[in-house]
Design brief:
alpha+beta, six-stranded antiparallel sheet, ACOT13
Length: 179
């Protein structure tokens, strides 16, 4: 029996998610002082290898980091009925949280050791509704610009068929965490 491209993508995505879930340590957070001592690559690799705690928001919203390289970050999650609003679709805050996370983390991957960031502005455009039938989705953030005091990133949420569900942009303030 031949598999479709969608089935192949879904199988790959689910295997990658299962592998990451097996590697993640406990949920928790680190102090800004501890994070400031690490390069972004050390920080994210440490989370991905279970050395450092992974963010508790990922457990609450059921999403995990999948891939990170300088200037790019991908999270994966599967929206379910626990994410629904009273209108019978996934609450817009679910997509906003995923986009805020992937865009912010994409910026973090481009910072220097000792720098941090915080979101100044977040803009989301919803394309179509997420439901518990959507299946796994990916939130991909990409850096547009990193300056001395601010950074910009864009993001998108898509499914295994490449259908777009939401897009976003963010402006983040760059912080000197050594002060």
């Amino acid at each position: 029996m031949q598999t479709t491209p969608r089935e192949e993508t879904l199988a790959l995505w689910l295997a990658q998610e299962q592998d990451m879930r097996a590697r993640l340590g406990k949920a928790g957070s680190m102090s800004l002082i501890d994070v400031a001592q690490l390069t972004p690559q050390e920080f994210f690799d440490g989370i991905g290898n279970g050395l450092y705690p992974h963010p508790p928001i990922g457990e609450l919203m059921d999403f995990v980091p999948i891939e990170w390289t300088p200037g790019r970050f991908i999270f994966q999650g599967t929206p379910g009925p626990q994410h629904y609003n009273p209108l019978g679709s996934v609450h817009g805050g679910y997509a906003a949280t995923l986009l805020d996370s992937c865009m912010g983390c994409s910026i973090h991957t481009r910072l220097n050791k000792g720098q941090g960031y915080t979101t100044l502005d977040l803009r989301i455009s919803y394309i179509r509704a997420l439901t518990n039938k959507t299946g796994p989705i990916r939130a991909e953030g990409t850096v547009v610009h990193v300056g001395r005091s601010t950074a910009l990133a864009e993001g998108r949420i898509y499914d295994a068929d490449g259908r777009l569900y939401a897009t976003g942009t963010t402006t983040c303030m760059i912080l000197d965490m050594n002060r």
